[in-house]
Write a structure and sequence with these properties.
There is one protein chain. The protein has 172 residues and is an alpha+beta fold. It has 5 helices and 8 strands; from the N terminus they run E-E-E-H-E-E-E-E-H-E-H-H-H. The strands form 2 sheets. The chain has a 4-stranded antiparallel beta sheet with strand order 1-2-3-4. A 4-stranded mixed beta sheet has the order 5-6-8-7. The longest helix is centred in the last third of the chain and has 14 residues.
Length: 172
C-alpha cells in the first residue's frame, strides 16, 4: 500500500461494511467433517476511505465480525474527484489484473462482483472497470485496493511537479 495514503484513526469515521465473499472450509477429522468459514469484507465511508479484511471463524457471523475489525485496521484514503477517479490506473495481485478508467457523470459503476463492492464502498459513482485473469474475490479486492492506492489527486501531482493545478490540466 502507499506510504502517504494510510488513515490513522477510525473513531470519527462512519464506516459501512460490505460482505464481498464467504467461503466454507472443511477440515476432515477422524470424528467427521469440521466446517469453518472465511469472510472477506470491505469497509468504507463512501467519501474516499476504504479498507478490506479477512475473518475466519466457526460461525458465519463471527467470521464477518472479525473481517470488519480487520478491515478497520488497514484503511487508506483515495482521491475521488466528482464521483470518479482522477486518472486511469491498473494493478495486479496474484493472478488477478484490473484496469480502472474514469467515466463521465451518469455512467455508473461498470464493474463486476468484488470490484463493484470496493468501488461503491469508497464512494465512486462513475467508473469503467475491467478484470482480467483470475476472478478470485480475495485477489480482486486486493488488486482493486492496490490500484486505488496508486491514484494521485491533481493537487498531489501539482505539488510533486512544483506547478499550479491549472498547469497540470492545461499542460502549459
Amino acid at each position: 500500500m502507499g506510504k502517504n495514503n494510510k488513515v490513522k484513526t477510525t473513531n470519527d469515521l462512519e464506516l459501512q461494511d460490505r460482505l464481498v465473499a464467504i467461503n466454507r472450509v472443511t477440515k476432515v477429522t477422524k470424528g467427521g467433517r469440521a466446517f469453518s468459514f472465511a469472510a472477506i469484507v470491505v469497509v468504507g465511508n463512501g467519501d474516499g476511505i476504504i479498507g478490506w479484511g479477512l475473518g475466519k471463524a466457526n460461525e458465519v457471523t463471527a467470521a464477518i465480525a472479525k473481517g470488519v475489525e480487520s478491515a478497520k485496521k488497514n484503511l487508506i484514503k483515495v482521491p475521488v474527484h466528482k464521483g470518479t477517479i482522477p486518472h486511469e490506473v491498473s494493478a495486479k495481485f496474484g493472478g488477478s489484473r484490473i484496469f480502472l478508467k474514469p467515466a463521465s457523470e451518469g455512467t455508473g459503476v461498470k464493474a463486476g462482483g468484488a470490484m463493484r463492492a470496493v468501488l461503491e464502498s469508497v464512494g465512486v459513482t462513475d467508473v469503467l472497470a475491467k478484470s482480467k485473469g483470475s476472478s478470485n474475490p480475495h485477489n480482486l479486492v486486493k488488486a482493486t485496493i492496490a490500484a486505488l492506492d496508486e491514484l494521485r489527486s491533481p493537487a498531489q501531482v501539482a505539488q510533486n511537479r512544483g506547478v499550479s493545478v491549472e498547469k497540470v490540466f492545461n499542460g502549459k
